[in-house]
Amino acid sequence: MKTGISAVPPFPITGTDGFVVALDYLSRSADGRGLDALSEIQVCGVPDHDRLRWLAAELPRRLPLLHATLRKNGLFGVPYWECTGEAAAIPIEFHRIAGVEGPEASMIESISTLRRKRMQGRQRTTLGPPHIHLDVVRTSSGTWSILMNWSHLLLDGTGVELLFRHMDELWNEPHAISPVQPVTRNDKPWWRLFQESESCGTHLMNLGAEPFVSASRGKVVSGRRCCLWETFSKEETARIKLTLGKIGGDMMRTFFYAGLAARCHQVVFQSRGNTNLSYAITMPVQQRPKDSAGRTAIFQNHMSMFFYILKDADLTDLAKASKALMRQHMEHLKLKRHLSFNSMQLLTRCMPGKTMLDLVRLAQRGEIASCYHAYTGSFGEGMSSFCGGEILNAIHMPTVNAPPGSGLFVSECQDQLTVTVSYLDTCLSESETELMRERWRSDLLGE
Amino acid sequence: MPAIAISPGTMIELVRETVLPDLPAGFSAEADFFEAGLDSMGVMQLVMYLEERFGKKVDPTELSRANFRSGLAMAALVMGQVAGA
């Protein structure tokens, strides 16, 4: 295997990365595993092992952050990625499902078994590579899947889609130019960031004034990482778009699905006998930079996070919930809280993860939010093929830490909507996730 | 409410001033804001500015990509000729 030593200067983390580093710390403090996720693309055709191995070796040579280690100098230094490591190939394994003919030596019972295994992540003793692990599975004589295990320290859901997209680009054009990761610069002194953070800080303190709930009840717990997802057919997805179209236009989708996340959690808490509760819903909004050639950044987390409070009375139906979220969103924008939040992220990115979360949880009675939520939109900005085959579907299976212990995520691929609930089995039971599924089917399909 | 003429050009200026400062000179009335970098966050900011400057309250059903795609589409939205959700 050809390797190389890169001479890339230290690469500072973004403001959003600072918060993710803290959440990764929280996850590791519970059971040693970092905040990892699994993403999968299901493809038509047969996998070309040699070319996939070439991709796994080529990517780290082109994208130095793939073999970087997260470091920090001194208590108040900004953490940075040190890219001096060897550009080793991304680990890649090839399997086939039992009963499917193929050259792969590794035979697995089912792809679900592998997904469950990979979702559990690994014990992290360093914050170095590998940040990604690939599994290629021949699922039938004419289909295969690629599973990417990835660390949230280095990538977010949108970034993973862009990485898949770039893999496909290199597959088709091995000499294509790779995006250059833009460096996050901050020229503002700390006292200016402190001043600008005030509006958001006050808002976050006020969130905790009225207690809200989460599935972990504010406790740091470990558990088996689980996922339940449902992909709607193209016909069902078209029906869902009609249903949502009666509430609002297509730019409202972020609010629909955040409202759905809140309503799906509400049904669980109501089943536990808890009513008249408040829910703190997170809504990440992408703020992704581009390089000088206009190519979107693949790595690092780039979000402004909005936190909204919904009460039971706001959650009587999806229309009411999404309009309540939109109303709060407009208030936030008028007060420029997204800019304040960005300043707060830059200010706190040098803070040790434990200190950052202790402050948040102190202000919010142990909690961070009622649940996680993200809507990633059309997979890979509408990509329809991957490494030589037509894409059948693509799914994200994020993992969550506790608190809050659960999250609801929505994505789209090839005109098929997928709703995923990710949770720790110590925070939600299987029967509770079934309640959630009934709620999303009734909200989206009117069943 | 100050009287500001509503035209595709006014809308392009609004977008340049508030959410896409790097919008090129000569950006045409039909050119696509989304291809130029407009995202959902930017659209929500535009909703706020349309109300502030033109008194246009955007209804949730009008919050569509089609209505914010270009200067022409936004001007039609403000003048009440919506493209629909």
Task: Report strand % of chain B.
Answer: under 5%
Q: Which CATH first-tier class of chain B would you pick?
A: Mainly Alpha
Order of helices and strands of chain A: EHEHEEEEHEEHHEHHEEHHHEEEEEH
Mean pLDDT of chain A: 92
Elements of chain B, N to C (H/E):
HHHH
| CATH domain class of the largest domain in chain A | Alpha Beta
- End-to-end Cα distance of chain A, whole Å, is 54 Å
> Could you name the CATH topology of the largest domain in chain A?
Chloramphenicol Acetyltransferase
Low-pLDDT segments, ≥5 res of chain A: 1-6
Give the helix level of chain B as a range of percent: 40-55%
CATH architecture of chain B: Orthogonal Bundle
Helical amount of chain A: 25-40%
Largest interface, Cβ cutoff 8 Å: A-B, 21 and 17 residues
Main pleated sheet of chain B: none
Round the Cα radius of gyration of chain B to an integer and report it.
11 Å
Beta strands of chain B, count? 0
By CATH, the superfamily of the largest domain in chain A comes out as Nonribosomal peptide synthetase, condensation domain
Query: Can you identify the CATH superfamily of chain B?
Result: ACP-like
Tell me which CATH architecture of the largest domain in chain A applies here. Answer: 2-Layer Sandwich
Sheet bearing the most strands of chain A, described?
Answer: 7 strands, mixed
Offer a concise description of the structure.
Chain A is α+β, with helices and mostly antiparallel strands. Chain A is 36% helix and 23% strand. Chain A has two domains: 11-172, Chloramphenicol Acetyltransferase (2-Layer Sandwich), CATH 3.30.559.10; 190-445, Nonribosomal peptide synthetase, condensation domain (Chloramphenicol Acetyltransferase).
